[in-house]
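Morning!

This is the sequence you dropped in the shared folder:
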Amino acid sequence: MKSLVELIDETESTWLEVQDWASKAANTVEFLPANPQEAAEVLYQLQVTTRSVLGTVAYYTGGILIENGWLRILGSGSRRLPRNLITWNEIGADGKSTRFPSSFLVADDVVGGFFALNGGAFEGKPGDVFYFAPDTLEWESLDMGFSDFLYWACFGDVPKFYETFRWEGWAEEIRPIDGNQGVSIYPFLWADGGPVTHRARSVVPIEELWKNFVNDSKLK
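The structure's back. Tokens below.
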């Protein structure tokens, strides 16, 4: 196990680069404040350095909200995003995830889509981000690592990616939702039911969306 001194590299940290992305982003980006003690604990358990973008997000942010909180990128946890990279993945003493073995969950969206780094759970390149799509109940490779994923969240066409999942007035509706919650849509996105704007919606724990969708998906 590397010490915190070894993991925190102020001289070659990617934090300035990530801040620069946020300042120039095409999408709305909000850094949530990190608690120094919790951030240090998360980084230590992850055993990644701040030279990596993942380590930087874990140590310097409590999480990142994209597009008014539609997309939540996990960090070390904060009041508005209480989960962190360790607790959400249910990392055990052996350093492995018990929530979704051979993967590492790094983000999710408000309608029950989840993003995970491939650690052998999927066929494809190790370290690539896979997306669990709530309209197909399947994991799909995004053909990018975590750094490129964060860059995409800042600069990519996020509205187009989610255009079939959004409803009229979605931004105002999700603004008060915290990072431990999501929106359950019925009929479900994978089912026939007409435009999403006309479907019933309710705020539920994000854990409920995980259990209802991912645990029952074809690849889980």
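Headline: The chain has a mean pLDDT of 95.

More detail when I'm at my desk.
O.
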